[in-house]
Amino acid sequence: MFCYQCEQTAGGSGCTKSGVCGKNEDIQSLQDLLLFGLKGIAAYAYHARELGVRDEEVDKFMHEALFKTVTNVSFDLNDHLGMVLKCGEMNLRIMETLDKAHTQRFGNPVPVEVETGTRKGPGILVTGHDLLDLYELLKQTEGTGIGIYTHSERKRNLRSLAVRF
């Protein structure tokens, strides 16, 4: 066990055998997993908000889960397992929300012919997860000779965007 989640952390550096606060390694691991999941949910929710869309149920869950991990000293294993499972549900929900927001803004992706391979000149490699940023980047680099490259599963969406320019 290594836990550094609260102000009661042993010696200010981390609890290693059991938590000074009373948590055990199972709770500590579930809380770490929950915090990791919340970071992903927050990222997707941020991108959805950039497109003007939010999900109140996801927002409510974020508050509940942060309370469960950051300020709560209830270490019921079943409660924590349930919260981690709900985190998975909320992650899928916010990904669906973001996908709908992308589709509303940019339309449904369609396969198009694009140039493959490399070419001389400057280029920018992007992950392709934030279609709004990709859209803005394509607009900003239009006519400059700067190539925009992606390797993500959103490639079709980027191709659809690129065809518009």
Structure, explained:
The protein is mainly alpha-helical and 165 residues long. The protein has two domains: 10-106, Substrate Binding Domain Of Dnak, Chain:A, Domain 2 (Up-down Bundle); 123-163, no CATH class. 56% of the residues lie in helices and 5% in strands. The protein contains five helices and two strands; from the N terminus they run αααβαβα. It has helices at 25-50, 56-71, 77-106, 131-141, 155-163; strands spanning 123-126, 147-150. A two-stranded parallel ribbon has the order 1-2. The N and C termini lie far apart (53 Å). 20% of the residues are buried. The model is unreliable at 153-165 (pLDDT under 50).
Distance N to C terminus: 53 Å
Helicity, as a percent range: 55-70%
User: What integer is the average pLDDT?
Assistant: 82
CATH class of the largest domain, named Mainly Alpha
Strand fraction equals: under 5%
Task: Report low-confidence residues grouped into runs of 5 or more.
Answer: 153-165
Q: Could you say what the CATH topology of the largest domain is called?
A: Substrate Binding Domain Of Dnak, Chain:A, Domain 2
Number of domain modules: 2
**Derived structural class:** mainly alpha
Query: Strands across the major sheet, in which order?
Result: 1-2
User: In sequence order, what are the helices and strands, one letter per element?
Assistant: HHHEHEH
Major β-sheet profile: 2 strands, parallel
Number of helical segments?
A: 5
Going by CATH, the architecture of the largest domain would be Up-down Bundle
Radius of gyration: 21 Å
Query: How many beta-strand runs?
Result: 2
